[in-house]
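Reading a protein record of the kind used here takes little practice once its layout is understood. The reader may check this reading against the record printed directly beneath this paragraph.
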Amino acid sequence: MKKFLMYALMVPVLAGTLFACATSKTDARQLAGKWNITEVKGEKVVAENTPFMEFDMNENKLHGNAGCNIFNTSVTLDDKDASAIRIAQAMTTMMACPDLELENKILQGMDAVRAVKAGASENEMQLVDEAGNVLFVLVKP
């Protein structure tokens, strides 16, 4: 009976461990390249022009499009924590855009990014804040 109870309790623990590994922290250098922004702070992105981030990890630079305006900035990595990343305040173009709400969410969200987590697949990454809340879901185009 004790063994049965032990196994019954271990199944949920094992399942939880496997689920946690699916969204574990990952090396920020794996962000190199272009990523479409598919979700911002829990909301799916529905935009005429897909916003994106393009990371140049050799130069610690970030270029992208917030839906209408383009932005350029730098990123800082942490030698002690491979998943840690900070995005500096971005310089942006200032065109009049139909959806400034999305642009503002993206630009403000970038200031709060502190780490990278693996997404649901190998083509997905998550940028999270200090508490581990998902700010952006990024998908390789």
Summary: The domain at 25-139 is CATH 2.40.128.270 (Lipocalin). The chain has two helices and ten strands. Confidence is low (pLDDT under 50) at residues 11-22. The helical segments are 2-22, 100-112.
